[in-house]
Specification:
The complex is a heterotrimer of chains A (258), B (285) and C (292).
Chain A lengths: L1 H16 L2 H22 L4 H35 L1 H6 L5 H35 L8 H24 L4 H16 L1 H6 L7 H13 L9 H5 L6 H27 L5
Chain B lengths: L7 E5 L6 H8 L11 E2 L2 E2 L9 E4 L11 H9 L6 H14 L15 H13 L5 E5 L7 H16 L3 E6 L2 H7 L2 E6 L2 E6 L1 H5 L6 E6 L13 E3 L2 E6 L4 H11 L2 E7 L4 H23 L1
Parallel strand pairs in B: 1-6, 1-7, 4-5, 5-6
Antiparallel strand pairs in B: 2-3, 7-8, 9-11, 9-12, 10-11
Helix pairs in contact in B: 2-3, 3-4
Chain C lengths: L1 H32 L8 H7 L4 H21 L11 H11 L4 H12 L9 H14 L5 H13 L3 H12 L7 H12 L3 H14 L3 H34 L6 H6 L16 E2 L5 E2 L5 H8 L2
Helix pairs in contact in C: 2-4, 3-4, 4-5, 4-6, 5-6, 5-7, 6-7, 7-8, 8-9, 10-11
The chains are: A mainly alpha (258), B alpha/beta (285), C mainly alpha (292).
Chain lengths: 258, 285, 292
């Protein structure tokens, strides 16, 4: 596990030194400023707009980082061949992969936390006070982070066996599919056979159900998030993530590095 | 193929012969279809084997956002060293490969030669018993190559085993106890450099100077560049030739054995390969 | 050379700026003719919003408010001219079912008759039904529903039902229960109307809703005042045997403590047949005529 930590901290260091990251955070802060402006226009819902806008920004920017940098984690090392010297060291391939994963998740955590602070600042600017019900925003941010970690895992998986471009496409595709997974389950279509319906239902269970991590609607209106949901979403993320990472490890372990 | 403890083993072959591939197989960067390999008695599947092995990849590239000191420290962390130990070693390595002044500069600013040196440093940092170097001399200027040669000899003196691949035959002749030759993906022979090329000489060579116009039957076989002439002949004809020259009043510059070089050996192998391939093509039709 | 380049840059940008101004004028003329909701299907928009539906809902809500506000400001509200209000609110509440203010705003301005609203109480009820389904704790939606049934659909049994349903919530105001009984028994009455509008006026936070309630309140107050004044005039006739012709007579008779005025301060008068009326100069007269 020490090896995992070594790779993780190095990945984190790389993200920090990579100036692209700073621009994204700046962009997020800019959005918060816009949120305050929008609040002035839509009467009656300044708070809920700021929360919705803030959570959307956190989610979207996190998504971009998770997909693009997630895909690059392994493919950049393979392309630049920095991987060669590393794998000659006494480190297993799965340790390398897990370390990369943890490093990016650490980066995302820091990034998301910074943006959450920005969100609270924006909220405070409008309300001049913070209430207990605003604490649920943190829960929403936590769930978004779980979602992002899952996406990093998926990005890693795809980048282990396809080109970076395709990996980005596949990851984005699975994200969209995963958002609609719930809809797929409850969909009523008259002109499909029962067999097809069952098949679709099965697929909907296998896809990553990203709606599990979305509580924006409740939190924007200051409503509570049930503890059971948070628990189960966490377990889901851990379980699904473990499956994806295991798959990625298996593929990567047998990959020939030309 | 077997490499013995404490020897410097050269892995020779033309480009594309499979030297890098073999080394990458050893380092588990690519996977074999069949067969086994062991280093220090451990199967190459055993990750702990890497504790005792150092590897320098072909055209090494490292994280360009790190400095040399940081890269070495990073790699060192995968070995069982204390923090203080790690720091001393990194310092020593940097000194050894001559990068001490550049250690705080990010690798993106390094020249190819400097990167090669970082690679070498990374390979020997953890005091490995076995070193596997893929084209360690490539991209270096003559000074750099001399330095790498010196380091390899030093490693040999320390009792370590070195396997390196190269297509520069003169390096192999100078450094290696034994060589293995690989052409077209197949191992063609293992032995000392002399063994490979065979001990027998191919004849004698005389360099001499003679005024133009002088009538010498020898001249028919000689090549002339300005005043100098060079002629080859089988060993038993040597004294006859010297008599001729003495009689003609020619000035003898040197008399030497013609020894086949690895290069000749190589060329023959490659030629033979090509001939065989052609033959197959022809017969295949 | 650089000077020439600089001049070109500046003059080019200035030219573009001017051109854009001209184009804006052209497009403005075009836009006056059509108002469009390009995407109409709430479900489709919800799908397109992926995970970010509440935010998109907020955008549509803003649009709905501005749509109504513009029409109201330009006094363009007639029957059928607020046709986009329901679709906009439909989309808003599909995207964010918990946006309470959308239901409250929607129920007010969908059901109220022109020139105040769209005159579409059926859609208002539909909106509110969705609202209570998604927000069962928010008893005021039942209040709004009761108001729609009472004022615009004049369906008193259903109105009473709505108030009764809302009253079940332990946090509901006590008067909800009272109102349910009163409406069930009496149907429409000025006191009830006044009470209902006054509660909205006092508790509404959305400025447009508040303003609308104030308007209604004033109108009902006038009706109440006139009814009371007529009662007093009848009393005067009973006492003196003749019909009063001036308010001052009622004051002298001790039936009024002072000359009565309408919400704008203009004194009520006794008109033909000794019936109480609004003062000719009072702006309330026009208000009453416009909002019948």
């Amino acid at each position: 596990m020490k090896n995992v930590w070594t790779v993780a901290t190095n990945t984190f260091r790389e993200a920090v030194r990579d100036r692209v990251l700073y621009n994204l955070v700046f962009f997020a802060l800019l959005m918060m400023g816009a949120a305050i402006l929008v609040g002035q226009i839509s009467i009656g819902i300044e708070e809920s707009v700021i929360v919705s806008l803030g959570l959307t920004a956190i989610s979207v920017i996190g998504l971009l980082i998770a997909v693009f940098i997630g895909v690059g984690l392994v493919s950049k090392e393979m392309e630049k061949r920095t991987l060669y010297a590393l794998l000659a060291e006494p480190v297993e391939r799965w340790e390398f992969l897990l370390g990369k994963f943890c490093g990016l998740v650490m980066t995302l955590t820091v990034n998301t936390a910074a943006m959450a602070v920005g969100l609270y600042l924006a909220l405070w600017t409008v309300k001049h006070t913070l209430e207990k019900s605003d604490g649920w925003i943190l829960v929403a941010v936590y769930l978004i982070l779980l979602k992002l970690a899952l996406i990093v895992a998926l990005a890693l998986l795809f980048s282990c066996f396809t080109t970076p471009f395709l990996a980005i496409l596949f990851t984005a595709g699975i994200y969209v599919a995963g958002v609609f997974a719930g809809d797929l389950r409850t969909m009523q279509a008259v002109d499909l056979s029962p067999a097809t319906m069952s098949l679709l239902k099965g697929i909907s269970y296998l896809l990553p159900n990203f709606e599990n991590f979305n509580v924006m609607g409740a939190v924007a209106h200051g409503r509570a998030v049930p503890g059971a949901l948070v628990e189960q979403a966490t377990l889901y993320a851990v379980a699904y993530g473990a499956v994806v990472l295991a798959g990625a490890s298996a593929i990567f372990s047998r990959r020939n590095l030309k | 193929m077997q490499v013995d403890t404490g020897e410097v083993f050269g892995f020779l072959g033309p480009n594309g012969a499979g030297k890098s591939t073999t080394i990458k197989l050893l380092m588990r960067l690519i996977f074999p279809d069949g067969g086994t390999a062991r280093i220090l008695g451990k199967s190459i599947d055993d990750v702990s084997m890497h504790q005792e092995t150092g590897y320098l990849p072909e055209q090494p590239y490292f994280y360009d956002y790190l400095t040399a000191a940081e890269v070495l420290d990073y790699f060192a962390r995968f070995h069982r060293l204390t923090a203080a130990d790690r720091q001393t070693r990194v310092e020593n390595m940097l000194k050894k490969v001559g990068l001490e002044t550049a250690k705080k500069i990010q690798l993106r600013k390094y020249s190819k030669g400097m990167l090669q040196r970082v690679g070498l440093a990374q390979a020997i940092l953890h005091d490995p018993q076995v070193l596997i170097l893929d084209e360690p001399m490539s991209g270096l200027d003559p000074l750099g190559r001399r330095e790498v040669r010196d380091i390899i000899l030093e490693l040999k003196k320390e009792g370590r085993t070195v396997l390196f691949s190269t297509h520069i035959l003169s390096d192999a002749e100078m450094l290696c106890d034994r060589v293995g030759v690989i052409v077209g993906g197949k191992l063609r022979g293992v032995g000392t450099p002399e063994e490979m090329v065979g001990i027998k000489t191919q004849g004698m060579e005389i360099l001499f100077e003679v005024a133009e116009g002088k009538n010498l039957p020898l001249l028919a076989k000689a090549t002339r560049t300005g005043e100098r002439c060079r002629v080859e002949m089988p060993e038993d004809e040597l004294y006859g030739a010297i008599e001729q020259l003495r009689a003609a009043g020619a000035r003898i510059l040197s008399v030497a054995q013609i020894k086949p070089t690895l290069e000749d050996f190589f060329m023959n192998l490659v030629e033979a390969d090509r001939a065989q391939a052609n033959a197959v093509e022809v017969s295949g039709k | 050379m650089e000077v020439a380049l600089g001049v070109l840059l500046v003059s080019g940008l200035a030219g573009v700026w001017q051109l854009q101004k001209k184009i804006d004028v052209q497009r403005q003329a075009l836009q006056e003719e059509r108002e469009e909701l390009v995407l109409r299907s709430p479900k489709l928009i919800k799908r397109m919003s992926l995970e970010y539906a509440p935010l998109v809902g907020a955008l549509y809500w803003t649009r709905a408010v501005q749509y109504y506000g513009e029409k109201h400001r330009l006094r363009q509200i007639r029957q059928g001219s607020l046709e986009l209000l329901w679709p906009l609110l439909d989309i808003t509440t599909t995207l964010d079912p918990n946006l309470i203010v959308a239901y409250r705003f929607g129920s007010t301005f969908l059901s109220d008759a022109p020139p105040r609203g769209a005159g579409d109480p059926d859609h208002a009820v539909e909106l509110l039904r969705r609202g209570v389904l998604a927000n069962p704790d928010y008893w005021r939606l039942y209040q709004d529903m009761g108001n729609v049934y009472y004022f615009d659909k004049k369906d008193y049994p259903r109105a009473a039902e709505a108030f009764a349903e809302g009253a079940k919530n332990p946090q509901a105001a006590i008067w909800m229960k009272v109102m349910a009984a009163k409406i069930a028994a009496e149907g429409e009455s000025l006191e009830t109307s006044y009470f209902l509008w006054r509660d909205i006026y006092q508790t509404a936070q959305e400025p447009q809703i508040k303003k609308n309630a104030e308007l209604h309140l004033r109108l009902v107050k006038v009706d109440l005042d006139l009814r009371e004044l007529n009662r007093l005039a009848d009393e005067y006739e009973r006492r003196t045997g003749r019909r009063a012709t001036k308010m001052s007579e009622l004051v002298r008779a001790g039936l009024l403590s002072q000359l009565p005025g309408d919400p704008d301060g203009y004194p009520y008068v006794l008109g033909e047949g000794g019936k109480a009326e609004l003062n000719l100069y009072s702006p309330m007269l026009e208000e009453k005529l416009m909002n019948k």
